[in-house]
Structure formats: structure tokens, C-alpha cells
Amino acid sequence: MSRPEHLSAPGPDPSLNVEFRDSLVPQITAGEYTLTAYQTLADGPDGYLPTADRPVTRHIDVRAPRFAVEPEWVHGAYPPPGATGLYDDVLPHITLDRPTLPWEREEHTGTGGERVPWLALLVFGEGELPDDPHCLGPSQDDQRTVAQLTGHEDGVVLPTFDKGEPIADDESGKTCRTVLVPRAVFHAVAPAQDELPLLTHVRHVNKQHQGVTLTEDTIQIGDYAVVTGNRLPSPGGGRYVAHLVSLEGWLDRLPDGSEGNETYTGPDERLRLISLWSWSFETLTDNAPGFAALTEHFVDTEGDDGTELLLRVPVGDLPLSGPEQQAVADRLRDGYLPVSCRTESGRATFGWYRGPLVAEPVKEQAERDRRRCAAEALIHLEQYGVFDVSLATAFTAGRGVALADHQFAAALLRLRGKVRTAAEQALNPAPAGTARARIRHLAANGLVGHLRELHRQPVLASAAASAAASASAAASASAAANAARPAVTPVAGATALPALADITVERLRTDTGLRDRLDKGVGDITGGSGKPEGPDEDFTAVRDWLLRLRNLTGVPFAHLVPDARMLPAESLRFFHVDADWTTTLVEGALSVGLAHRFDFTGDDLVFGPQGALPEPTAPVTGLLLRSKLVSGWPALEVRPYAAPHETDGETPLRVLRREALAEDVLLVLFEGVPGRVEIAEPQQGVHFGIDEPDTGRATAPLDDGIIRLRSVDAAAGPIGQETGNAFPSDGSGLRDYVREPGEGNPDTVLRIRKLANGLAGALGLQPPLSPARFAIQMINAAQRRTFTTAPVTTGDHRNG
User: Fold this and answer.
1) Torsions phi, psi of 535, nearest 5?
2) I need a labelling partner for 192 at 20 to 30 A (CA). Which of 134, 578, 630, 677 fits?
3) Measured over all CA atoms, what is the biggest interatomic distance in the chain, rounded to whole angstroms?
4) Strand residues in 414-504 grouped as ranges (E)
5) Paired residues of 785 in beta bridges
6) What is d(CA 791, CA 450) in angstroms, rounded to the nearest whole number?
7) This protein's superkingdom (predicted)?
8) How far does Cα 80 stand from its chain's mean position?
9) How far apart are alpha carbons 342 and 339 in whole angstroms?
10) Residue 374's closest CA among 354, 389, 384, 363?
11) pLDDT tens digit string along 287-303?
12) What's the N-to-C CA distance of the chain in angstroms?
């Protein structure tokens, strides 16, 4: 694995087509209407029909949601309700399945004739709401009936409802949730009237996105209304509560958007707003570097041609004298480490050890016999009189992991007993059918000859007794007794097949007929017989356990990384997996509980190269990541590809194992040798916020944050594709686009209109920027870092 390329956002997903629209205004909004109908006939009487002079009129009342949002209308929210994470670069937003909802009430019309939404998403921090200082969400005490909201409450300003749309009798008794907001806080966090359209848009999805997401705000086919907040959570951390509130009766109290009037100086009032929907979340203190800075460190420490990204102890460039020192340096570069050990005689010495994760590919080993003990895996380096203990350690590790798992050991013993029984039956099938059939089977296998031999023994004994009549009485009696005792005659062999104990692994692999017969015999166990009940449960348990072991599950971390210098803090290391090491590991596990000579052969029959545990079809490689990325981005995406550069229609290599071995250590195994590996932030739906620059170092995202510009002109490229430019272009950050908080007032509230105008200028457009185009620019892009084996020329990345 060589050097990394540029940091970028993933390309567009061909399975996803998302269109942003400014609004979806219904033809009829809430209110009272009069329908008028009449007809005009060209010929004939018209006295009985309604005419233009005498029309038929009907009065109708069109209602729209006013006091609550039904749960089934909420498609999702981000940050997710109750979530804890790093959200200081995200604008909270809610997605609604009812796409016309923000425009179903006609509260106000903008200067351009556009319908102004009647709702807004307000984000409050801890200590800002008197009735909810800890941002836990509305309680029972915050509930009010509609009738109570139309009445009077001491010291509280209630909403003024539109008299043109009187409250129906059946609505007066409805209970709705409310939130009590100090006027100064409302002035600080509420958007201005001309900012409301920019914070609400429609998302149209016409093809389903099949990606995995960890948020409730998933992308699915359909139309959705999206309401976005105007406040970023603080990098100092804390709890927040987001309220989707009705603005009916409050438009005159919204801030005017001018920078000189951002600090509230009016009377001390408390406003009771209708909370249509709310949720809470917590953002953590963001003192750690961001994704770009953390992955940039891997670039800075990659070494020449990425050599420092390989898993081994750094050797350095110290001068070497003599072949011995050169041999030691070569072994260290190959990933070996000297370890202390003792010989069988007890003499203390040292040996060389290398784990399964190696810096360079290991030569493929020729087929060999299975090792029966760790001693057979020792490699004696005669030139230096020391041992290579790598494979012996692998054997011992596999045996230790197996012995530590009692369920596996028990399943293995039961499985071996079943395999022996099945093999015996395959070699010596029991006769089936009636008693006559069984007698015929015995007769065909030597029973008649054996009985004839037993029948002849008494006749021979009598003849011998008569011939010895002249002998003494004692001798005659003894001879007759011995002659009368029938001799033991061996039973003729039933078949020409060998006994189980005589079947070796070598014969099993070379005798095709024998192999086929035994495979058929154990077919019910392995599932090869095709019976509907499937494989034996002990076979399945043992096979799956061995596959996990071959992927190094359960192997102590010290066996994988024997020296901390191989994987220092904030490091990324690539490796190949030594297939001989993992094979020896499995052999060690199968050395447990060998109780019969055939068990060794039975293991090869079931789990050998032609069994249920064949060797991988491609070399196994992978990476180890020790970084704050592991804990900070639990859903970090790691995508290996065979080609060093992006190609059309490519698919990632198969990931065999992905596991966080510690809070800051991630292990990923690939099937195949990747030409490039992409490490990316998780793509969690379409979210909004600000971006981190490639060389971001600031703790607060606003200090050096940017917005990556995206195309809004189809003639210049696909809409939504990054243009390669950022706003602001001078790297000054986005502090100029944040409202002045004032003493005790909320901070990190964006000046949405000013930001939209700045983005329009950067895109070469004439302000104002439309809501859809503003939403496209505010998409919170997921960043990625690409590591490739391709040669990199100057200019490909900052270290090129």
C-alpha cells in the first residue's frame, strides 16, 4: 500500500436520485371558502337551473394542521432523538412525510410573492428555557388546551390566532404541547421572516437509495418536507432540545435580520409557543481533531512510497556492519521480532517471532502433512542456532483458544463421534431387510466356512485319542483333553476395505473411490446428502467457529501486534495475512480431544482442503487503525477496491471481518489485495451543516469551517456535484456569518440571509439564492481519504 491521494467527498451514488425543490404549496390553504356554481344554456328554458344571476353557493371550511403534528408524519430527525455524539457542525433538521405541511397555512407572503412557511425549527441549549433547563423536552406541565391558549395566562404572552380562521368547537378541547420561551431567547434563535423560506424545502426522491444508515432520517422514495434549524450546537458540548413551533401570531416578534438589532433590548416577556414536535440530543465536547486532521496525520507519517504504513517495527537507517547485522535488519523489515524463550532442555535463549499480519506477501507453501503438536512447527535456523517460533506459537494459540471455549470443545468431540460412526457404516454397511437377507450376508462373508471348520474339530479329536491308547493313563487323558479342545480359527474378512484406524490422510487424499464413499457416508452430517433438515448442528457450530478463528477471532492482540512500536497512537497500518500461520492456528484448535486414530483423518475429511474449510480463494489482506477515528466515528466506512483508481461499475472487495478490538483500535480483513482503500465518514442520509477543511486544525468548526460549493447549473456539471471550490475561499472561517450572542444570549446562530447571499456570489449567481439551491450548498458532505498503490505524481496531493 502506497501513499494517500486527496481528501474528497464520495462521488454521487447512481442508485440515488434526490431533487431539491423550493416548496410544495397546495392549491387551497386553510380557511373558509365559498363555492359558487351556475349553468348557462344556449337554447331551451333555464328557469329551473342556477344561472349567473341566481348561482348556487356553498360555504366550506378547509382545515390544516394547526396545533400538533401526527407521529406518522415525522419521517426522521437529525441528530437522532436521544443521541449522543459530535454534532457541532450539523444544523438540526426534521423530515416530514407530509410534504405540503409547511405551506398549508397562509401566514405571510414574501417580497418575491413566495409563501412563507408557518412553522420553524428552534434549537435551545441548557439553561435557556425556564421550564426545561436541562433540555429534556416538554413535560405534562407544558400541555395546554386550545381554549387555554385563547384565554389569559399571568405574565405570559399567548399566541394571537388568525381571526379569519376561527377555531372550531371541536378543536377548543384539544390538548397541545407548548414551550415557554423568554423573549430575548426567542429573538436570538428565531429566524427572520426573509430567512424562513431558506430553512424549508422539499426533497423529492424518485429512486430508492440502498445504502446503510445509522440515523432515523433515511432516504426513501417519495416527497418530503425538510425544516432546518439555524443554529449549530456548541463545540463545548451540552444538551439541546429542538422544537418545531407554530409561528401563527408571532411573525411580528421575529427579528428583522439586521446585524445592528441582533441583541434584544425590548421588554422582559415570556412567550408560550405551540410545540408541534420536539426531540432532545447531546453533543460531546469537540476537543479532538476532526476527520481531515486525523487522516492527514497518516499522510504526514507515511514515509517514502508509503513504507511507514506497513505493519512492522521501524528499523531506521543506522549503518550496518557485517552479514549478521544485515540479516537481523532484514528480519525486522519482514516483520519479525526477537523474543525470549527456552529450549526443551531448559536453556534460556531467544527466537524470532512474526505474527499472522505481515508487511510483505508470504510465499505460498507447498502441501504438507498436518502438524500434530507445536514442536513440529518449530523452525530451526541452523546458521544462527536459534528457532523461528512463529508457527509453533500459532499452534499453541489455536489450541489455547479452543480449550478456553468449552462449547466448541464439546461440539468437536460430539462431531468426531458422529463422523466415526458414519465412516464405519460407509465402509461396512449393515445388512438391511429380513432375517433371511442378514443370514445371506453372513454366509457371503465367510460364515459357512467358519462353521465347517468348527464342525470338523471333534472328528479330528477322536481319531487322535484312539491312536494314543498305549500311552500312560495320565498322558492319554491329557492328550485327549487337548485334542478335544477346538482350535481358534480366524474369521474370514468380511470385505476388502481397510479398518478406520488404517485410513491415513494421505490415502484419503489420493484414493478417489475411498474419498467418494466416505463423503457420501458423512453427507447427512455435512449437508452434502441434500436432506431438507440440513447439516448437523455440531458440524455447523464447529465449522463456523473455525472460520472465525481463521479470521483471527479470539487470538490475543499480543499475538497479532507483538510490539507497540508496530502500531503507535494515531497510526494506520496495512498488512498481508500469512496463510501458513492461520492454517497452523486451525491445526492447533483441531488438536484438542483426539481420541481415535481416525479422528485425524476424519478432521481432514470434514474440514480439509476438499471439505468444509477450504483455503481462501484469494490472498487475505487488511488494515489496523489505531486512532480517535475509531471512537469518534463508530460507523467509519472502510472500502477496499481492486483497482488503484476509480473505475465504472466497480464493487468493493469482500470484507471478511471488521471489529473494534479496543476503543481506539479497528481491525479490517479483506478478501483480495486492494489497489486502493477509501476511509470515509459514514454517509447517514442527506444532512445539513458546515464542512471541515482538508487541513482543519481549529477546535471550533466555525473558526475555520467552510462550505464546499456544489453545482446548481446542469450545463456546468451534474447538479449537486462539488465544484472543487469552497466558501469562504480565503479560509477565514464562518464567524462573520454568526449572530452576535449578546450577554447571556444563545450563540452559534447563523445569519442565514447573509450566508445565502455570500454563497450566491461565490457561485456567480444574483441574490437571492432559492431555498432549493441553498439546501444543496448546505449539504453536510461526508469526507474520505483514499490510499492507493498507484504511483502519485506531483500535485496529486499535498505531499506529492
Assistant:
1) -65, 160
2) 134
3) 158
4) none
5) 7, 679
6) 81
7) Bacteria
8) 17
9) 10
10) 389
11) 666 777 788 888 888 87
12) 16
Q: Is 603 exposed, middle or buried (0-12, 13-18, 19+ CB in 10 A)?
A: buried
CA gap 219, 216 in Å, rounded: 9
Spatial contact of 25 and 101, defined as CB atoms under 8 Å apart: no
pLDDT digits (tens, 9 = 90+) for 241-282: 999 999 999 999 999 999 988 988 889 999 999 999 999 999
Cα dihedral 7/9/11/13 (nearest 10): 140
Other Cβ atoms closer than 10 A to 524: 18
Share of the chain above pLDDT 70, in %: 82
Q: How far apart (Å, rounded) are the C-alpha atoms in residues 364 and 395?
A: 19
DSSP state of 313: -
Distance of alpha carbon 176 from alpha carbon 168, whole angstroms: 15
Cell of 689: 451543516
Find the helix or strand (DSSP H, E) in which 312 lies: none
Return left, alpha or beta for 640; rule: phi > 0 is left, psi -120 to 50 is alpha, else beta: beta
Report DSSP letters for 49-61, one per residue.
Answer: S--SSS-EEEEEE
Torsion of Cα atoms, 465 then 469 then 472 then 477, to 10°: 20
Query: Residue 162 half-sphere exposure, CB side, CA atoms within 13 Å?
Result: 16
Only one residue has cell 469518534, namely 632
Helix axes 512-521, 406-427, angle to 10 degrees: 120
The runs of H, that is alpha helices, within 567-661 are 579-590, 597-607, 628-632
Reading the block at residue 220, the C-alpha cell is: 426513501
- Beta-strand ranges (E) seen in 133-260 are 143-145, 175-182, 200-205, 222-228, 238-246
Neighbours of 39 (CB within 10 A): 11
Residues in the chain where the model's pLDDT stays below 70: 1-17, 44-48, 107, 110-113, 206-221, 287-289, 430-499, 683-685, 695-698, 742-744, 781, 792-800
Cell of 278: 420536539
Please report the pLDDT score of residue 14 as a whole number: 41
